[in-house]
Design brief:
Blueprint (H helix, E strand, L loop, with lengths): L41 E11 L4 H37 L15 H15 L8 H23 L21 E4 L5 E3 L3 E4 L3 E4 L5 H9 L2 E11 L2 E13 L5 E10 L3 E5 L6 E2 L3 H17 L14 H35 E7 L3 H4 L6 H7 L1 H14 L3 E5 L25 E3 L6 E3 H10 L4 E3 L3 E3 L44 H14 L14 H5 L6
Length: 536
Amino acid sequence: MHQAIPRRGTPSSLLRWPPITTTRVDCNRLFTVGLQGLGEGSMRVVHAYRYALDPTPRQERVLRSHCGAARLAFNWGLARVKANLAQREAERSYGIPDAQLTPPLSWSMYSLRKSWNGAKQEVAPWWAENSKEAYACGLDRLATALTNWSESRKGTRKGPKVGFPRFRSRRKSGMSVRFTTGVIRLNGRTHVVLPVLGRIKTHESTRKLARRIEAGTARIRSATVRLEAGRWLVSFAVQIERAEATPARPDAVIGVDLGVKTLAVYSDGRPPTANPRHLTTASRKLRRLSRAVSRKQGPDRRTGQKPSGRWRKADAARNRVHHRVAALRRDAIHKLTTGLAGEYGTVVVEDLHVAGMVRNRRLARAISDAGFGEIRRQLAYKTQWNGGRLVVAGRWFASSKTCSGCGAVKAKLALSERTYTCADCGQVVDRDVNAALNLASLVKHTVAGSGPETPNGRGADHKTPPAGAGGRETSTPHRAPPRSDGDLRPAMDGPLRNTELSERSMVSDILGVHLHGRLTLPASRIPAVRRGLLPS
């Protein structure tokens, strides 16, 4: 069902768009007025265009007022919800039946905004000085936070547990506001127009977005203004019509092994991508600026002490360094992922448990500085934009322990061993290169005229090994039995079956045996299997 164009005053929750990570969006769920007809071989996606603003002192005061209005609406709604929950809990403690309790408040954006419109004259008599979108932005964030908390408590929301929303302070909470209705457009190549704020100058040219709008292939849906490291930034969520693209090498497969010592190692022999270590490079300057901040008179909430002007200046200088580090990291990751998605038809990566990896206090800083999660996130949508696909290997797939030549699996492989030496076939290869080759070999190809075949890590096809007179020897449990098609690895028709690989590889790591074929257990493990402690 097509959605109609909303009238002025529509709640912002009804205008919420998919996140920027969305790559392919159902066209029926997007507004279509103002765009040219979706031609054959094209798709509509949501892009973000961000520009640095250069507001005048008056405009900056109005921007801060809008951000404060959003915070005020959020805190006002949260206070009402907490008071209602506390009242119901108190009544329940007195033994009052649930049917006679104080009616609960609705957490929807529509209900919160309706209540705000009835109380805004008393809560904020100056409400007319700001755009109505500022208050709607704060209430929308409150509705989202309460919904996430409720779903997390019920167990219907994925990810870590979400706590109950807290009040937002003026000092700690970030300053941002979102506009979804009103006048949101570009003015020339160096100015933008926002509701109430009017015409604001930008530090850089907006010609890239302006050309798309003039050609009728883009439409601005919302604008978010945020203060970061002392600079005001505006981010436009834009619905764009993109032509279907094709990678430069649509049949090529590349395995990408991510690491800390080297950011990315590839399976096709291309030079690895070095880890720039932006945070490590800036650590010396950050230590010096942090010492300067500690010598100044900072804020103290216990005594009500306010920070001095010198503390604010020193803290701003430190924040600018952090902002630059984040910008450099973001730029490097964009260049890496754009190059891979534009060249290769299939990219294979591992499902890394980054949240668990950063629990290691010795490696947490280096892992966070590398940005493994951001690399996978960008590859997910960029491969679709370019007509390719992203294959994610199971989290327990032993890519580093498996020999890319013969398929043998080592029981143990210390992190300090940077060279993989196979005891079965004698292959000696770099540890990261071996992992990248194993990732690339997971994708099954169909060779014209010869049926399905799976190339190994070195690009050759596995041949069926000769069978011995006595069958498979139990003394060599690491070697996999041949399949009917000569493939030593599990068949991967269609998408990669991560669940099967994960379970088999996890047990393989526990027992130290290869699970591509029939499981051969040491004698010491047989009683445990019979007791049901291990899979047979």
